[in-house]
Structure prediction request, 123 residues.
Amino acid sequence: MSDGVFRPVPEWYRDDKDKLRDAEDAEVCAARGGIQSDVTRPDVEKLFMITEALWNILKEKHGYADEDLARMVQDIDLRDGKLDGKVTRQANPPCAQCGRTLMGGHPVCLYCGAVSVRGPFER
Ligand SMILES: [Zn+2]
Prediction:
């Protein structure tokens, strides 16, 4: 039972119950917003299924092979010069009308009001 006073437990004394409490604390922290994310695990699972379904359609209807997909994924990964499994966020592009930098993801220029058409995968 806790008296509210933090007393660190030495690593050599920690047992499985201590480790389980740490994991539970981490879950509580995440649930309370300690880790911010708008994407939930069911969202990610659904996206995996949709991606696989779309890929299977492309293979069946258009004859693409898994090697085509692997090559394209690698090409996208290498756009920043590093094969690291990440897509590096690109710098904000300039406004086509006034040339000032468009601010993070906004389709409308904050300076001149011009509407910018951005690529569907720009982040
Ligand atoms: Zn502008």
